[in-house]
Every structure is written in structure tokens, then in C-alpha cells.
Design goal:
- By secondary structure, this protein is mainly alpha-helical.
- The chain has one domain.
- It has helices at 2-20, 28-49, 52-74, 78-85, 92-103, 107-145.
- Helix 3 packs parallel to helix 6 (107-145).
- The protein is globular.
- The chain starts with a helix and ends with a helix.
- The relative contact order is 0.13.
- Residues 7-132 form the Threonine/Serine exporter ThrE domain.
- The chain crosses the membrane at residues 28-45, 52-74, 80-103, 115-138.
- It is a multi-pass membrane protein.
- One of its GO terms (biological process) is succinate transport.
- InterPro entries: ThrE_2, ThrE_Dicarb/AminoAcid_Exp.
């Protein structure tokens, strides 16, 4: 039951983010679906890998694929779906913990948490870049075959 509530919360979070940042109204439902799929894949990946960085990477790949597919369905830019859909994965709590440890003078824990935060952010960026490059490559191959 808790997982279902988390998925609903991710759905609402992403729709709200999209609304605040003026995403097209016709895209809001699919934005929510992207956010829910993102968070669901993160939960599953974290369960199977027990690693936040790998789980963030895999969930970001799901967001990238959803963004590419939904953008073509709705005839909108991919960034509309990717930017809003990635919001549940943003490492806000680890970044906060990094600052808190550093302010409290616990430098070793702060650096450890900071490195984890940077690795999560890099995994998210790398996954989105891989999916984007793959989609461009696929489009280019498809164009040459026609």
C-alpha cells in the first residue's frame, strides 16, 4: 500500500511541477505517468541493486525513454517530459545532508555524502544523454533507410 501511495505522490508531484512551470495542459497526464514510472522503476531498481546511484541511473533511463515516446505522441519537445519527469530523482536530501555535515564540522561524512550526491546527479545526466543519443541515432538510421 505504501508503494502505491508513493507512486500517486510522484504522479501529483510531477503534474504540479509541470503546472507551475507552464507545461502544456495536454501533456500533464503523461507528465504524471512519467513521474510515476520514474519513481516505480527507482523503487524496483533500489530493491534489486541496493545502490542509489545505479537505481537513479536505471530510473533515469526509464524517464528518457518515456520522454522520447511521449514527446512523439504529443508532438512536444522531449525536454517537457524529461525535466518534469526527473524531479522525483533529484538528490535533494543527500545535498542537504552534505551541507549539514559540513556546517556541523563533520567533514568526512560531508565529503562522503557530497560524493554520493554528485554520483547520483552524474548518473541521472548520463542516463538522459544515453537515451537522447540513442534516439537521435535511431532517427538517423531510419531516415537513411527511407
Amino acid at each position: 500500500m505504501a508503494i502505491i501511495l508513493e507512486l500517486i505522490a510522484a504522479f501529483i508531484l510531477v503534474i504540479t511541477f509541470g503546472s507551475v512551470f507552464q507545461a502544456p495542459k495536454k501533456s500533464l497526464f503523461l507528465l504524471g505517468v512519467t513521474g510515476a514510472l520514474c519513481w516505480g522503476s527507482f523503487i524496483m531498481a533500489k530493491y534489486f541493486t541496493d545502490n542509489l546511484v545505479i537505481a537513479s541511473f536505471l530510473a533515469s533511463i526509464v524517464v528518457g525513454i518515456c520522454g522520447e515516446v511521449f514527446a512523439r505522441i504529443m508532438k512536444l519537445p522531449v525536454t517537457v517530459f524529461v525535466i518534469a519527469g526527473i524531479i522525483p530523482l533529484v538528490p535533494g536530501v543527500p545535498a542537504y545532508d552534505t551541507m549539514l555535515f559540513l556546517i556541523q564540522g563533520e567533514y568526512i561524512q560531508g565529503v562522503e555524502k557530497g560524493i554520493t550526491t554528485l554520483m547520483i546527479a552524474a548518473a541521472i545526466a548520463f542516463a538522459i544523454a544515453i537515451v537522447s543519443a540513442g534516439a537521435r541515432y535511431y532517427k538517423e538510421i531510419k531516415a537513411h533507410q527511407s
